Amino acid sequence: LSVSSMIRKSASVIFFHGSGDTGPNVLAWVRNLIGRDFAGSHIKYIFPTAPKQKYTPFGDEISTVWFNRTSVDIDAPEEVESMSKSYDIANGLIQNEVDLGVATDRIIVGGFSMGGALALHTGYRLNMELAGVFAHSAFLNRESIVYESLEGKSMHPELCMFHGTSDDIVAYKWGLDTFDKLQNLGVSGTFTTLDNAAHELMESSMLDVERWILKKLPQS
């Protein structure tokens, strides 16, 4: 056993991948961008893979997706039944960390694209006691149940969002609209515009996420 693996992890970060991807792939993508793993020997970084299921935007092909959508459009209705299955996965991942002795307020959830949407649902509908939420190139449907869930709530995890201005899959304005709505419901956080970035993670954004994680989850 290496020394780092023997150190008890006092915090956890769950990073949800985008549609059609896998956990190992997004981990490799981050490593490729920043040249190493995310820092923090006291933090356990988890990169789960979504179950295989039919995905309507891919012509009903079987793909690794967290939930189904009728279309990738901010005006589309949410697929409630499909979303509830993704909630079970997110809740299970969080509960597993809690069972291992990690406090809920020492857990951050985040993700890219569809994974970012699941992170937003997780932190602002399922569990508002988390330490924080990050979402990259992601959005919530205009009539999302998340907004309803936030009505009247005063405590929320801090939000860290990133979006490229040249994103041709998830429009930049959808991400900004999501952030503005969440802010109006009391969520505090930052929205970082990535000039000329497409639907992609960036080295700068991953380094920003890392700094933010280390600030939110200091060694205890």
Would you kindly provide a written description of the structure presented here, covering whatever features stand out?
This protein is an alpha/beta fold. The chain has one domain: Alpha/Beta hydrolase fold, catalytic domain (Rossmann fold), CATH 3.40.50. 37% of the residues lie in helices and 19% in strands. The chain contains seven helices and eight strands. The chain has helices at residues 3-6, 23-34, 80-99, 114-126, 145-150, 172-184, 203-216, and strands spanning 11-16, 43-46, 52-55, 61-64, 107-112, 132-136, 158-164, 189-194. A six-stranded parallel β-sheet has the order 2-1-5-6-7-8, with helices on both faces. A two-stranded antiparallel ribbon has the order 3-4. Helix 3 (80-99) packs across helix 4 (114-126). The relative contact order is 0.16. The mean pLDDT is 95. It holds the Pfam family Abhydrolase_2. Its EC number is 3.1.2.22.
Topology:
Layout: H1 3-6, E1 11-16, H2 23-34, E2 43-46, E3 52-55, E4 61-64, H3 80-99, E5 107-112, H4 114-126, E6 132-136, H5 145-150, E7 158-164, H6 172-184, E8 189-194, H7 203-216
Parallel strand pairs: 1-2, 1-5, 5-6, 6-7, 7-8
Antiparallel strand pairs: 3-4
